[in-house]
Amino acid sequence: MYELRNIKYKDILTIDHLQLEEGKVSCITGKSGTGKSSLLKLLNSIYVPDSGEITYYGSPLSEIDPIKLRREAVMLAQAPLIFPGTIEENLQAGLKFAEKELASAQELHQVIERMELSKDLGENAEELSGGEKQRIALARVLLMRARVYLLDEPTSGLDENTEIKVLRSFIDESRKNKSTVLMITHSIAAAETFADREISLDT
Amino acid sequence: MEEQGIINIETWRLISAYIFVLILFFIVKARGINRERQIIIATFRMTIQLILAGYVLTLLFAHSHPVLTIVVLIIMAAFSIHTIFRQAGQPLSSHVKKAIIVSMSVGSFVCLFYFNFVIIHFTPWYEPRYFIPIAGMIIGNSMTGITLAVKTLLDSLRSNRDQIEGALMLGATPKSAIKPYVDNAFDSAILPTLNNMLGMGIVFLPGMMTGQILSGVSPLLAIEYQIVVLLGILGSVSLAVILFLLLAVRALFTTKAQLREDF
Ligand SMILES: Nc1ncnc2c1ncn2[C@@H]1O[C@H](COP(=O)(O)OP(=O)(O)OP(=O)(O)O)[C@@H](O)[C@H]1O
Ligand SMILES: [Mg+2]
Fold it and tell me: Were B236 and a residue from A193, B62, B111, B253 both cysteine, which residue would form a disulfide, CB within 3.0 to 4.6 Å?
């Protein structure tokens, strides 16, 4: 699916070769500051490598329309993104940005439940706790039914128990849709439980 | 305009107006507020610049010629663009500079020519007595508007880079990713003009109208002029600012829809 060859990005990342398989869950681990977020941003066309080539299903990223790519291989930012407004507006924001059909009320309730949240759709999203915001952001991405999910520490603010539950729902759902998940995590438990493959950026 | 209506200010009376500055100067000194230098410099520059402007305008009015008018127009535009660059208070990339130059020139020139040819409709079209003050007014206000827009937009993009990139990651177009910040920049650029219109005639009479009334023009005629002038200002400020914001989206992102690292 994704393949990286001789990638160099500033003095942050050097990757000789990396291949990611379709339909798998891969976990990226590594110390803080090793360039994990930068790697996902390269895959999402937010950054451009200084040299080397990244291909997505065989085509070089430089030849793919970045906006189309991001709508298919969606990325969840490390800092949870919350817009002024209600929980519902926040959940729909991703579909709106991607110009896709909005989610039904039923889907919204379902996704909130999957994320272990007990909140009303009409509540003000900016007043949520840090961990709740993170789950709203993750739910928003799940609603987008992407082909690839690039998740940057999606559950770093949660207790281990909730973390495992939330990730299990997310990954069950993505497996059902045959989506690929590439997730950065510092949680050993999460990596052990879910990873088909672990990629360590520590050298 | 009739010359008879004007009360000529004799030189000694003109000089006596500087007593206001003297009073301010002594108050400031007595209270130990450290502003004496600025007061002297501001008074001095105002006097010199206006005397020079008076001579230049007299000269221009006496030698009315299309080339001369156009040259003055270009100097004004160049000066205002230079001022925006300086007042932005941050280094600007060449992309943003280009957006400023285009929006400033196109925005103010379109409004200026509409104003001159359709609204005031004077002949000959280059008559400096009309052309130059109107151009100064339109260019000056567009300049203030764009300066505000540039500052607000760039500051908020810089402090919200994570938010904007977060939206791009979800598949947002650059335009929708920065929409809230663009709307905000538009607001802060236009609000001073709108607020100014709200207080008009009640809180104060604008300088141009006061000048006209003092020099004997009937208040109703002065008001007619003032209305079209205010509308012209509103039009040119909004047009220039909208153009800048439209061009800015393209200037701030790469062709690969990435927010540039420096702008
Ligand atoms: N746009 C950039 N320009 C220059 N340096 C950058 C840029 N983005 C990140 N860096 C630097 O690159 C290094 C790697 O950053 P990155 O965010 O990819 O790390 P990370 O592995 O995700 O860390 P963490 O686990 O703390 O999130 C850091 O030292 C950071 O300061
Ligand atoms: Mg990171």
Answer: B111
Contacts of B172 in chain A (CB under 8 A): 67, 97-98
Dihedral of alpha carbons B55, B56, B61, B64, sign:
positive
Domain that holds residue A89: 2-200
- ipTM score for this prediction: 0.95
Q: Considering only CA atoms, which of A121, A133, A150 is closest in space to residue A45?
A: A150
pLDDT at position B4 over 60:
no
The span from the CA of B236 to the CA of B238, in Å, is: 5
The pLDDT tens digits for B148-178 are: 999 999 999 999 999 999 999 999 999 999 9
Residue type, A23: G
* B169 contact residues in A (CB cutoff 8 A): 41, 44, 46, 70, 74-77, 150
Q: Tell which one of A27, A37, A156 to mutate to probe ligand 1, the residue whose CB is within 8 A of the most ligand atoms.
A: A37
Same domain flag for B51 and B93: no
DSSP 3-state assignment of A54? strand
Same domain, yes or no, for B117 and B12? no
Interface test with chain B among A40, A46, A96, A100, by most B beta carbons within 10 Å: A46
Cis previous bond, B124, omega within 30: yes
Number of domains, chain B? 2
Find the largest Cα–Cα distance for chain A. Answer: 48
Please tell me the distance in Å from B191's CA to the nearest CA on chain A. 22
Nearest to A131, CA basis, from A160, A88, A92, A95: A160
